[in-house]
Amino acid sequence: MTRTIFSAIVPSGRLTLGNYLGALRRFVSVQHEARCVFCIADLHALTTDHDPRRLCQLAEETVTLFLAAGLDPGVCVIVRQSDVPAHTELSYLLECTAYTGELNRMIQFKEKGRGRPKTRVSLYTYPVLMAADILAYRTTEVPVGDDQRQHLELARDLALRFNRSYGEIFVVPEMSPAIVAARVMDLQDPTAKMSKSAPYDAAGTIRLLDSPDVIRRKIMRAVTDPGSEVRHDVENQPGITNLLEILAACLDENDPAALARRYQSYGALKKDVAEAVVAVLDPLRKKCADLAADPAYVNATLRAGAERAQALAAPTVAAAKQAIGLGTL
Ligand code: AMP
Ligand code: TRP
Predict the structure, then answer these.
(1) Does domain 212-290 bear CATH number 1.10.10.10?
(2) Contacts by 56-59, CB closer than 8 A, 24 or more apart
(3) Nearest ligand, CA of residue 62?
(4) How close is the Cα of 150 to the center of ligand 2, in Å?
């Protein structure tokens, strides 16, 4: 079986440090190891209230950030979800495999939409489209942050059920979780995930394109915990633990608890976190500005990506259609 890695980011807001450490940076580091497809999941951005012009802009900014972070379109496939009909086509077949009981259990749906009269139907079926994204490419591994675990379990369940019912069409994917910073928390509320849907200037959210000054200010003002000891302790010191996780991830170290021992004060820790984050994000921001000046390159990347992605996905979708009873015997 060809080792295949697939992951996606929804262009529903401006990307955050959480997106970078939990997802994008990991995409860059695995691109040479396997066949890789990385997707800007714009269809998923239609599941909640959206502005069409803004969505277009955010999708473009997200592709630019993929390239600026170091994804190489000569090495991996970079694709916008809406450019590849295979995703929606397969999604319907998987809707006919999934049960409402399963979708009712999805935490994200429960939190964001269940029981509200104006929740879009697509928010309910979102995990099925996500499963289609993954299964269409015969994906073996999905690098995602911790928050996507339940959705990935569903993709696995649907693949297994479809295969059992109609024949071995899909590969059952594995999640590859991050070792550190799997869940970067909000700097102002370290019990909540840092999210790109927060208001743009929210003090607890670091955006990938924030200037060094803004980054420093946000980190220096991060809420800390009662006491003054620097310890890695999610339960009792969520603020400090979050800063340690961010520092470890930015320094490429795997042991945030060991890092804690180097610090006597919260102030010293914050200073180092701020400089480490600036060192990681500053080159990214500069590269992004260069790329923004070359929209033709960004567009050509998307056109080529769409063609390659459709070619990769089409045989699997055709086989799934045939197996489920569509087409001729
Ligand atoms: P989303 O922002 O929900 O489109 O997520 C895109 C990718 O970034 C997924 O792999 C998420 O798991 C990851 N991600 C989003 N927010 C965070 C966070 N605060 N910490 C770690 N990973 C994150
Ligand atoms: N649902 C994911 C998120 O919110 C984004 C996503 C869409 C995705 N399709 C995917 C992630 C397929 C991995 C694989 O983060």
Answers:
(1) no
(2) 58/11, 58/12, 58/13, 58/14, 59/11
(3) 1
(4) 11
- Catalytic residue numbers read 112, 193, 196
Residue to mutate, 6, 7, 9, 179, ligand 1, most ligand atoms under 8 Å from C-beta: 9
- Tens-place pLDDT, residues 121-144: 999 999 999 999 999 999 999 998
Q: Where are the domains of the chain?
A: 4-177+295-324, 212-290
CATH number, domain 4-177+295-324: 3.40.50.620
**Nearest atom, ligand 1, residue 193 CA:** 19
- Chain position carrying tokens 């800390």: 224
Outline where DSSP puts E strands in 128-189: 141-143, 174-176
Q: Is the pTM of this model over 0.85?
A: yes
- On the question of pLDDT at 185 being above 80, the answer is yes
189 lines ligand 1 (CB under 6 A): no
